[in-house]
Design brief:
Elements lengths: L7 H13 L3 E2 H8 L6 H18 L3 E4 L4 E4 L12 H11 L3
Antiparallel strand pairs: 1-3, 2-3
Length: 98
C-alpha cells in the first residue's frame, strides 16, 4: 500500500476517489487534480496507462477503460491511515467543496 501512495499524482487520485466514494469519470478526476499537477493531457495518459491499472490490480478501484469510469472500492478507505490529512482535505478543495 505504501508503494501505491509513493507517487504524488497517485496520492491525489486516491484522495479524490476516497473522498467521493462513488463512481466518477476520467474527465472529472482530471479536472479535479489537473490544477495541482501538470497539463490535463499528460495527466490523463498517466492515469489511464499507469495509476488506474495499478490501483485496479491491487483491488482499490474498478476501472472501465471503455466507458472511462472509475469506481472506488471499499478498500480505498485504508489509505486514510497513511495519507496526510491535508492531502485528503486538499482533494475537497480541488473539487470545490470548500
Amino acid at each position: 500500500m505504501y508503494r501505491m501512495a509513493a507517487d504524488s499524482q497517485r496520492r491525489a487520485l486516491i484522495a479524490v476517489l476516497a473522498n467521493s466514494g462513488e463512481e466518477t469519470t476520467i474527465d472529472e478526476v482530471v479536472a479535479r487534480i489537473g490544477a495541482r499537477e501538470r497539463g490535463d493531457a499528460a495527466l490523463e495518459i498517466e492515469l489511464i496507462h499507469s495509476h488506474l491499472p495499478m490501483l485496479q490490480e491491487a483491488g482499490f478501484v474498478t476501472f472501465d477503460r471503455n466507458r472511462g469510469t472509475i469506481r472506488p472500492q471499499e478498500r480505498i478507505e485504508s489509505f486514510e491511515q497513511i495519507l496526510p490529512t491535508e492531502e485528503l482535505m486538499n482533494a475537497d478543495v480541488v473539487r470545490g467543496d470548500s
